[in-house]
Batch of 3 targets.
Target 1
Amino acid sequence: MRLLSYMGQWKSAAKEVLDRTAIVAKFLCLLHVTNNYLCSPTLVGNPINTCSIFLFSFCLFVGWLGLLSCGVQVYGPSMLPTLNLTGDVVLAEHVSHKIGKVGTGDVVLVRSPVDPRRILTKRVVGMEGDTVSFYVDPMYSQTTVVPKGHVWIQGDNTYASSDSRHFGPVPYGLIQGKVFFRDYVFVVSEFFIRM
Amino acid sequence: MRLLSYMGQWKSAAKEVLDRTAIVAKFLCLLHVTNNYLCSPTLVYGPSMLPTLNLTGDVVLAEHVSHKIGKVGTGDVVLVRSPVDPRRILTKRVVGMEGDTVSFYVDPMYSQTTVVPKGHVWIQGDNTYASSDSRHFGPVPYGLIQGKVFFRDYVFVVSEFFIRM
């Protein structure tokens, strides 16, 4: 008798757990779909800041749901002075590269052809068919034509950037998204944290 | 009076429409996430993978988990985004991973050997005579791999057979 009543309770508890899990799973799918076709909080920042960035990006997402914006943290010296050395949260959208609207001058997130797990932030300097000149060393410049289906990317800080001058033109299919906005709230809050 | 009752009916009908739409939207999101991140049926066609895959089309199941965790290796049939045309997805076999030495025939007399650079893979179609692959456009960055084929749909093959009889 008591066993039957325990089983009954357990069954209803299990059902409730499943319902809650289904709701969470559906929400995560929705979040993920929206994130991937608009922008994603790709956590490429250093681990110390990761939690705060995730929380911040999440609040950003919830707060700016109507504007469909998400934060990506980018760091490194290769895009100085455009982007910060110690990290910047930028908004990146994932629609443009799918419809072919990425062009010269855009700052893009691109998967590294050398290490497929890394995503780089560089500027597109030449599209397919363009002629690109670059300095291999201060005396010697080289000119190449960007082949079909590829783009030529360079960091703004040419002295401290490993880009297409080192690993050649990058296939267009490796572009993950286009950066369109820097998050100045993050910049200001970082300033206050460090004060 | 009648107007108020009409509005009441319309409101409940609208609510029901919204509920149904929400269910459909959630289902589509779930379907989309599964398709993109787990497993998706894909129609592949073309002569470059004969005799493994059919010329006029084969439905295969491709999973999208392995390449993200680095489990794609030599001998796998993969879906890879073309480095020449970013809107096309090719189905080829991985013949060499980064660091491997690959030999291939440029023409029947002359063979060439290359080492696959870091972060790249060498893909070739099974039907070497009618396949444009790494022998033409060079090693392909690993990041272009979209998924790994693990199953061919034999139900589709059988039904195609019966349709053509």
Note: The helical segments of chain B are 2-37, 134-137, 154-164.
Target 2
Amino acid sequence: MGHVYSQYLGDPAVTPDHTKGPTFDPLYGYPGGRKERVMIATLEEMESAQLPLNKRDYCAHLAIDHRACRQRVWPLTYKCAHEKHTYLNCEYADYVLRLKEHERERRLLERAKRKAERAARAAH
Amino acid sequence: MAARRLLTSRTLIGLPGGLPGLLPGLYPGLLGLQVSRNVGHWNKDWKPKPYPVTPEERAEAARKYGLRPDEYEPYADDGMGYGDYPNLPVVSAESRDPYEDWDYPEHRRNFGEPVHVDFDMYGLDRINASQKMRFSMQQYALSFFGVMAVSIGIYYYLEDKKMHWPVLPKQYPGDGAVHYTFEPAE
């Protein structure tokens, strides 16, 4: 709620736009670099499994495993609990990463605002 | 006519209310007590006669409808009239005295009283065209359009201001896009 308030009523300048990606350089502030995300499932595998387009993210390989397990054991779908939980934990980690990206964007925007204010004060 | 229509309605038969109209073929019909199967029953004899031209026709028409000749005035015979049916002043049922001992309380009408040609529109459950309204038409219009304008204005103002979680969009591996985690590169 606080982010919605600050975006529309508070200070839109320091609130990230939730419809767009990060506006700052992803490696800014990481002198040692950041680990890249690896896509494990290949396009051929995803197409062969007929995975919906909105599930072809960085957890797609676990989605395919879960769907294959369900197809094997259906209707006894409780047997796929392990695959289901691995997939959902991956999705959760992905969501946490999105939260972190949003927070990083917000802190960099506030920092940019502070730097602009300091520059404006120094100019006088 | 509408008057005769009411006289033969279910209210005079004395059977449980609505029975002839709602349950066709029950015992009232079998016993021959039923005059009409629903309140909207029409009889060709009730059709108004053509527009009266001579004074004798006017007097006869006035007597037929229960009016004096000096207060009987049919609708103009311009192709949109109703033959010799009288042009009565509009008095809605709702604006009549609710405490008077009417013969037909649900219509607030007495026996033999002439019925307006749009009688079904001016009933208790429909339009009240004859009572002074509490506010002026300008006030009514202002209230209605004011509320509608405010609602529509709020809708369009908030159209691009949506609730959302504090997350950036989902990262999909696309052509050439590089995404990072928050762990240091080895």
Note: The longest helix of chain B spans residues 137-157.
Target 3
Amino acid sequence: MEAVIGRCIHWGHERMDMVSNNTLKSPVLCIGEEQPKNCFTELQVLKGHFDIVRFLVQIDDFRCASAGDDGLVLVWNVETGERLQELRGHSQQITAITTITCKNEVTLNTSLITASSDRSLSLWDPDTGNRVQTISDLHSSVKCLLVLERLCVWLSGGEELCVWNRDFQLQCQRPNHSDTGITALIELPKNYIAAAMDKKIMIYSLTVSADSSVSVAEIRCLSDHQDQIRALINVNDGFFASGSHMGELILWNATEWNLLAYEHILWEESQAYNQTEIRMGAPKPSEMSIQHLTTNGNLILAAVGSGLYVYSIQTRSVVAYRKVAHDSNVLHTMLLSDSELMSCSEDGSVRMWEIQDLPLPAEPASSGFFGMWSFGRSNKQSGPPSKKVIDIPNIRMLELTGDLIGHSGAVQMFVSFKEKGLVTCSADHLLILWKNGERQSRLRSLALFQKLEERGGL
Amino acid sequence: MIGSPDVVAFAKEDEYGQTSPDLWPLPEEFSVPLYPLADSNPWAKTSYAKFTKDFILISEFSEQVGPQPLLTIPDDPKVCGTFDLNYFSLRIMSVDYQASFVGHPPGTGYPRLSFVEDSRVVLGDSKEGAFAYVHHLTLYDLEARGFVRPFCMAYVAADEKKIMLQFQELSLRFSQASECLKAGNRRAFAKELQRKLRDLEYTHSVLQREEGLQREAGPQSMYSAHAVEKANELANVEKSIFEHRDLLKQISSYHRRPRRDPHAVTCQKCVDECLSECEELLNKYAKIAYPCGYGEKAGKGEGHPRGQGEDDDEEEEGVKRKLSYTPQLIKAKSAKCFDKRLKTLQELCDKTFYEATVELLKETERSFRGDLCYLYTRRLDKALQRKQRVTTFLFEEDLNDDDEDELGTLRPFCAVNHAVDNYVLLNPPPIVLAPEPHELDALERPEHLDPASETSITLESELGLGESHLESSPSDQTLETQESSEETKGSFSSDKSGVGLAEIQQSLVSMKSEAPDPDPDSDLTPDPNHNLERESSSEEMETTAGEDEGENGGDQTPMSLLEVVSELEANREEECEGVSGSELLVPIDTACCMVQEGFLYEASAPEAVPHLCQNSHLQPSQTLVVNQEPQALLPLQDDYTVGSPCSESPATGLELPSGLLGDAVSRTSAEDGSDCTMSASTGSDQTASPLGYGALVTLRQRKKAGQGALRFVRQYPFAIQALWCLLSGRTLVVLGADEGRVRRLVAALALFVPAPGKCGERVQAWLSCPFTLTDLQRWKLIGLQRVASPLGSSMLYSLSRYSRYISILDADHKTLRCPPYRGQLLANIADHRTYIRRGSTYFLHLQSTLCHLAAKAFLFTFTHHLHLPVSSTEGLEVVESRRRCFLQEQLGLSEEDSQILLYLSQLITQQYLQPTGSSAAAPSFSFNYTTSILYKI
């Protein structure tokens, strides 16, 4: 008997041609099957949706809601994998979902607000599955929602900006001039709101008068982006950030609304590489589009095309990056800590990364780079690609520590429940609950002995 | 499997092992003689039997031709071989005890129907090498002498001991069959009576009319010879009417009569039906109590010949049939006894009842296949399994849950299939396979000392054989030992038709005690009248059997009964004092196990056969390829076939090349361990599909798979790795282009899938579409079609994508890709140089190993401190290290072997927490991240 060690399967001539072109064109990022740092050794497949599942929101520490193109909202128990509620009511795909917490009495009461393409908004009670409130016949469908707990109001953004109170009464409304409408809303200090529409960011001020009527006023328009804004996030009290389709990452001052840093992430494309490439030579905008931004206050993690980009706010510089982090576009990212991050992509996988220090001899900079300062096509990788690299001696490495493979479609989003596990949703209509097998096994043992005790024996 | 022969053979006490008195001593049947005598062939006793396997014989004592065989089950001439059925019928019918009086008992005006209880006798013919449990019964036939037709059903086997030890079970099953026959017979008899009555009444009316005409003709003819004759005839007919009416009354009162037969089994629904039917009949014929009254009516209805009958017929359910019946004139003289044709058994009984009986007997025959040791092992096995529910789901075949909810309750029976709630639940007789000296002593001694307790003695002298009798107990069960210079016959009769007051009372008591009491422990707390008798009679059987053995053939030494008795007693004393353990069988509740054996043999096989043919005609026109077998959807299980000779196109998704089936079939007869000593061919049940997953997986299929597994182990050097994958819960994908080969491999490997589910739900024998994660979660063993097409490449893509969760066995290239296994645990079941040659042997070997594993997993699962901290201060690491220590040092398992145990433990935990598996939550799927390597031959 002869044992051949191999990481990939050899099937003679039957190579897996189906694997997307991306894999073939780029150096295959393969961690293999040995993943000691990957603790997700158990999974549960949650079925219930009939179409792409796009959104996941955490309701409390053990429940989450999923929503997607089938118009269904499902509430899940993350601990057991049970489906707790099925919220039916929307006839078309869900476009936005958020939680709203009321602390009317002693208890915290979390409800769900959903917006759908059927131009309706609904308020749900996830405990009972009841539709508490609903508004239909809106002029346009809502694309984003923002809850301002402090003011007891919430906003919906679409072609118009509306402010609602908790009882779903329209407080005020502000029509919009742009074609695309508001795609993202964030709250800024001092009752200001930033809304992304197309290439601009509008700053609104929200004033609550004595009779508790709310009015919205346009304060400023920030139009530094060259392309459509894809992501808009709050970083911390001082900053907010936005990313555009062509890879511009801008850090803004949250109070002064001025531009603090402008980073144009442009993956360096080697010419030789482009020639062998079957696809068009120029980098497609989607390859550098900032799909998603996330932050933990210190770092901003940008999903750029199929790559990842970690930006430090303190140093205003790149900390680590990986041009080809996935085989396809990265759709959602998360910073677990200052050194651990997670990303999911259209290629159907979730990957876990660790920001590691480079080994001492300066790592030959990998093929990708960000091109604000260097458009130079430097095939010679170890050569001085740009001054920027030298400027940043503390650049570190994004090391793949594990991947989760289970979905057969694009992984749209994920929500982490810390040690309880991770929920991923995907275009294959499924949710997968990833758990720590050891922990689960311990919990099961606990349950077993409890049952044993209850029964007084076997 | 707990009682596999491997275990048995090595567990036999050797000369050093005297010290520890074993709590579970080995029954004598299992013992392997330490120093076998050179000339003694353990099978010598049965070797000269002229038939190859046990069968059931139904004979009748025809009043015209004497004893004659009617049919055998299985109905195959090969079964009986050269065995002389005629002669044997003569033998078994000759021991009929039924010396009951028929005809007119003195003092009554009308003939009485004798309500005879069945009798049960064991007799043997050592010359022929045949021993039989004989169940006598009588059926009613209006045309027969005394209205009765004696029949008997006999279970004929070559092994006397088998019959002796299975007496209770045999008795129970044959009682069921007999009751069924009799119920049908009563129905048929009542119908016949009804018809006869109608004829008589018609005759009567005709005669009356004639007489009336004569009377009108004038007084002179009143006294003519002709007139006198007519008058006599009329009187005769009237008498006959009364007689028949009385018979009808008698037959309808059948159920009100106390049953003396403690083993009688009745279905309440049948009884009710019969009763109401008879009531109806009675009412009808009570109306015409007076011939003159009838005459009036008949006069009225003169226009239509059926007269009275018609009105009543319309009230009946079977109107159509009866309307077509025209009453006939009854001749004054009945036909000569030898002229008429006697009714056949089918005619005597209602058709449904007859068929149900035959089915029942077939099932009985099936369930008693195999030799005693085998039966006994199975029974022990099941009894133990039932106590091990926490782990049996892992590797044992499924026990039919429906039938064993109530432990000790016999499967409610009605051969005609009435609803379950109608059954009188009865207490099955305890199966005593070995004597229980202590209890017996207490029981038997007083009886022998006190001759007054003997109530009656039955004599049997029909054939003038030498006979002697022992009334062993005041019961109606008698041990009869007949000795002649050439033969030894152990004869055991259980009933007598003699009616004694005491007996009636007694049987009443036993009925009471029997019917409503499903207490499984009744053999431990014997009912004074009833259970003790059973045990004592079993004891008698046992000792008789032992006696024969002890005599080294036993046929040469005539022995007087008293000697036997004293010897028996002596034996018992000996047993009590000395060998307290070795002969004893620990009283376990084996009784309940016996019921379902028939199921285990062939749960759905017979039905599959016609469907197979049917499908093979359909299939050429069906071009659709069924991608997945309809797992676990039992109603759909017929939608695919396993190999049909008609269509061999490989494209037709689910077919197996026809040669394969034949191949497997021909192999089975040799391999099948169930009929170790007696069966050369097992007849028609061979058609059971070899890969019948999707239906209940039967033991037979599993044994067949054993051969495949053995071949796999011998053929593939990396078998051990493959087995490890399956046992540690890593899904194994068998990839291949040839469906037959893949299916065979899957069927073989399915043996190693822990908790495969009742119908093998966790095994997918043939899949021709790409699989998803959900499939991996559902199936632990998948046969995957390798196709060279876009579909194929997407399949390969899914293979590579999910490669971390699966192991891939490439049947075409003979490679296996899986994580490396370096453990030793599986070495003894995956040794490719194994000396095991037979599939069934390997299967049992495997089962014992797996059973061992399951036991370890059980221990591991339910040891608290291996999973949870003992104190609150203890960290998880401590528990973890304790667990590792337990697995590695105490169980001696390597890292990979531990994974097997962890997986089994996880299954046990899940099963324990959710026995039904019907949780709302999705099942969880565990895995780990390890590198795979590729093994090649």
Note: The mean pLDDT of chain B is 65.
